[in-house]
Design brief:
- The structure is a homohexamer of 253-residue chains.
- The first copy, chain A, is an alpha/beta fold and 253 residues long.
- In chain A, helix 2 packs across helix 7, helix 3 crosses helix 4 and helix 7 packs across helix 9.
- The longest helix of chain A is centred in the C-terminal third of the chain and has 24 residues.
- Chain A is globular, with a radius of gyration of 19 Å.
- At the A-B interface, helix 1 and helix 3 of A face helix 1 and helix 3 of B.
Chain lengths: 253, 253, 253, 253, 253, 253
Amino acid sequence: MRLAEHTTTTAAEALETVDVAILPVGSTEQHGPALPLGTDFMAADAFAGTLDDRDDVTVLPTLPVGVSEHHRQFHGTLWARPETFEAYVTETIESIASHGVQKAVIVNGHGGNVDALSRAARRLRADNVAFAPTWNWWESTPELSDDLFETEGGHAGPAETSLVLELADDLVREDALDEAGEGAPEGWGESVHGASVGFDTIDFTPTGAVGDPTEGSREAGEELFEAASAELEALVDWLVDHSFESLLPDDHV
Amino acid sequence: MRLAEHTTTTAAEALETVDVAILPVGSTEQHGPALPLGTDFMAADAFAGTLDDRDDVTVLPTLPVGVSEHHRQFHGTLWARPETFEAYVTETIESIASHGVQKAVIVNGHGGNVDALSRAARRLRADNVAFAPTWNWWESTPELSDDLFETEGGHAGPAETSLVLELADDLVREDALDEAGEGAPEGWGESVHGASVGFDTIDFTPTGAVGDPTEGSREAGEELFEAASAELEALVDWLVDHSFESLLPDDHV
Amino acid sequence: MRLAEHTTTTAAEALETVDVAILPVGSTEQHGPALPLGTDFMAADAFAGTLDDRDDVTVLPTLPVGVSEHHRQFHGTLWARPETFEAYVTETIESIASHGVQKAVIVNGHGGNVDALSRAARRLRADNVAFAPTWNWWESTPELSDDLFETEGGHAGPAETSLVLELADDLVREDALDEAGEGAPEGWGESVHGASVGFDTIDFTPTGAVGDPTEGSREAGEELFEAASAELEALVDWLVDHSFESLLPDDHV
Amino acid sequence: MRLAEHTTTTAAEALETVDVAILPVGSTEQHGPALPLGTDFMAADAFAGTLDDRDDVTVLPTLPVGVSEHHRQFHGTLWARPETFEAYVTETIESIASHGVQKAVIVNGHGGNVDALSRAARRLRADNVAFAPTWNWWESTPELSDDLFETEGGHAGPAETSLVLELADDLVREDALDEAGEGAPEGWGESVHGASVGFDTIDFTPTGAVGDPTEGSREAGEELFEAASAELEALVDWLVDHSFESLLPDDHV
Amino acid sequence: MRLAEHTTTTAAEALETVDVAILPVGSTEQHGPALPLGTDFMAADAFAGTLDDRDDVTVLPTLPVGVSEHHRQFHGTLWARPETFEAYVTETIESIASHGVQKAVIVNGHGGNVDALSRAARRLRADNVAFAPTWNWWESTPELSDDLFETEGGHAGPAETSLVLELADDLVREDALDEAGEGAPEGWGESVHGASVGFDTIDFTPTGAVGDPTEGSREAGEELFEAASAELEALVDWLVDHSFESLLPDDHV
Amino acid sequence: MRLAEHTTTTAAEALETVDVAILPVGSTEQHGPALPLGTDFMAADAFAGTLDDRDDVTVLPTLPVGVSEHHRQFHGTLWARPETFEAYVTETIESIASHGVQKAVIVNGHGGNVDALSRAARRLRADNVAFAPTWNWWESTPELSDDLFETEGGHAGPAETSLVLELADDLVREDALDEAGEGAPEGWGESVHGASVGFDTIDFTPTGAVGDPTEGSREAGEELFEAASAELEALVDWLVDHSFESLLPDDHV
């Protein structure tokens, strides 16, 4: 079920069988010249959507603005401060927990959100409110990505390009994929003698992309989406199989 | 344009002619037994959508969780603290202002958001960042509402019911409209000798609705949507006609 | 009793019969050329004073600086941020609650304080600390105001002018009442196609007043003060008649 | 002038000659069985009142709730958190500075406020907003206190008792002065081998008083009030003689 | 024991007999031309070190940056905001309390830290987390300081000079002691008619020192260190003799 | 130079040639049964110490408590909230920047600090205060670690064990290394279908260690320390070679 489509009375009934809430979160930020600014929240929303026919799941609305200040120099990027995003996520999960759903998966489409989501999840668990791990689609099938592409599957790179081709190909400017790859580094960030000195994306990629986007394809996107969706499905099954209490931390050794 | 559907390079070009950003905000909260929990953000999104073909407008993604703690006792309600919502909105508008768009309309679907939005708008203006008034659809055509309905057009009442029938009638449980009106008060809140003592919705309405939802109709919804959309359009025109500088406050008398 | 005039030992005895604390709050802000800057806190203090002979009431000291940044361009206006004022009020009420008085009326003289007071009251109630509704004198007798004046009784308008004539006529510059009304709008704020675009008072009134102050009179002030005081008295009676527990919110439907 | 008694237009004129704002701050807290809870703000208000006929001074309204959590176990004590009080004072002084008065004296009646006031003053000065030292009446005439009393002039002790006898003797329960002194320590706090271990007043005084209140007298109160007022007057003169710029800190050695 | 030198398993065993944690805190700030910037944390660390052979004590690591913004104009001074330092100390003590040690002494080397430490200690005690008084070495033996020196033993004055000569004489520039005393005031701060107007050290001392540093000597330092250490030892004994519960505040009179 | 060992006047002279500040930060937290709780700050301090003879470097004092709440169930672990640690670090670097040193390396010994340090560094750079990248010793020589050990060099694993053997072998309980490795996982954390579900260390390692500590040796420690120190030296050289302005971010594409 998509929670927002229920009325409060049908939600009351539906929530009786719900065990896991899904909160899709992403970002609105530059993804180079070829991919849409909404790539990350669209991806999160699409993965969440694969679960909305389960009776033990409720899908919350998608949060579209994330921790993206490091992309701020590129046109169209929106961002919230890490503290703000952390609070917005935390309070949303506290809300659904107050209705009795104390397990959640944060389906995340944006790497920059990860730290804030970790802090939110740790706090929610330490306070006995909810167990809410973050699921990053690009980390769920590492071997498949390695098989599919020669260059790393980073920001606006081959994996993300493939995924958007699968999910919303009308929003991909395929004729700009070459341009996207020009001057793009192989991996994320810039490191000098072990220190990360690339604080903003603009420091290390002129186009905003990382990796070679031209490696992307609809077929790879389909494969990635299916494989990652299966992992997400399995994660939800795993959560259903564990009681909330069993997921809480020990107090002390 | 919908900002999220652009790439950063097409956004760069499109933003050159954009003068006003539209930020739809709503809530996911109980609207009685007949209307969907997502009523408020769906309404905001729909009104924003009427503007997305204008070259001088960019529509930002919709923020779906708002200031709704006062509905917390009803199943499915989600909420953020006022400070969190205010910050999330403020930072989103600061972001688009950093790309040169310093006028915005916050298209709001939820009364509980109004105070936080006012604080955000005052701060953005005082800091010379953006002029971002809030537009509440239900306040834009007061006379039409009076003409259409006998009871007040409040939360989950006839006006809102009509609007959702127009926008997403598959999500309205029409056979629950009678139940929604049972015991519902005529107006919002509970007042005792001039003091508001109804802090939570549950204090004064057993179903979550206010007013008589059965007064609502598709026809009224269509009229309301068209009339209010015209007001929104006119508001955007008014903003386009005023320079940002002319909208800033005087320093002192 | 006025709490501040008691010693701690006589307070201990007196508080045994006290059921309701009264916290007068106002503002120090422009009220046009004719009314004193202290109008709002003086009004709150005067209304609170009508209750200080009740054994079931304790009157706390008056908080004189409120949420008035929107008047900042007029000489002499003082203001606190909404968060600061909210905290100062909340902590004051928490204090008196710690001595066993868990019902309170915030007697408010300033419209700009209302949102912050609502947030404070909601939090205090949700935390089971106190039930502390806000009472705005100008909202307690709406029909009387309609009877007495032709123009709206807004900021520094006929109702407020009348009240100060009743309470402290030596502070009213009666020969400036004409000037106060010159160019003053009929109602508060400035609205464009349903959006509030008048963020600061200076945006919509050159003198700082709203409505026609020359409609004000000592007689009207006396009537207003008596009628509103009776409402306040009745509100306190209503609170006395309800146990604290009965005023707490339900947990969930 | 008392600022609150002016209208905004007479304030505009009066502020042209004003050089120093006076902000009286105190507390509402136990002062033992004999002195009123409002002792501290009443004292601050009285000292401020000695200046209100000066054309170069404006007296702001008195802030009656301070940093008094350490008295919380005694009936009737009210308190704000240090951060809240600091913010309330800071913003009030920022307000008057925005109207051109950038020097201020915080006339303080309560020792517990001192640290918060120091932080406020440092910040206001470092930000070039205002120079706002705190003046504590009990520290302005140390030799006179030594001459007048044998025991230390601490909280609710002989000096404070004398002052309230001078300012508001109808609020002093003179027949309770003996009781106030019973078991009261000579000085403030409790120290163990150099560490302060008396965090709350209740830790070291059973009555709430410090020193021997029976040493207090109307005559001593009159002397103290006059002598301290003269010091305050001299402090204001000193501020008038120094330009705001000359009071700002050096940037670096 | 020094906590940091234990492994977690040997700490588990050792903490079984530990009753009091010692947290040394200081500052890195100017101490005039003759004493090292680290004077305050080095002193705190040295005093803490006298206790590290006690089985009922654990010594936590030394926090070297404190509340020193008022020294900021002198080269090399480091500082944290009071709120930040308060939080860092509070959380460190909360941590050790979570392992069962709910009594602590904050061994403090810097006067500017005192207010923040008081707030931390009050909060920790009010929340039943820990009893953690602050011990300032220079306040533990007031009579000895009076005996040893003619001028006041203030910042970078004779007492502190003596102490550093005892603890780390290789860091004292003895040939700069004359220069340090040139133009140095006898006591801390600058007072005008009872108001403290010296907000920053640079306001009242050209060298950064207070008092006459040339009065300092190794012998005096040795005496001070031994006498103060004995007081600290006695304070720890006193804490060991009192149960945690007996140190908690009463709820109300 | 170690800043704390200078007086303010010798620091003034020394800072004239200083270009880069070094801030060592670590943690006090469990490192399994064999390594000391202070491992992380001791490592940071040791690496920082290799630079203290450079005239273009100043070494700030070591901050010993970090972001370690995820180790809280193990005896002796201390922690600060991420926000507190971030603020403490930020303000320390702001301090040294105020004396003219606007480049810094945060020499970090603890993985849990990385996110907070990234936020601090981004903010300092965006505000034009300082360029302060974080250097993590264990990331500076990845190939060497791969060569030296068969298992991953994670928390309390072979690399860290080797390093402490090199730096402070009297603090290593070598006879507990076997016990440390019992049941320890190969890598950090616990992942389920792409989601990190191991929020606290206790979730995935019974001893607190990760990897096989018995692989560690003094020889490997010496190699690691020398190789990593050389990288740190090279990083400082790189910073010296770049002007502060050249390290600031572009405003916009």
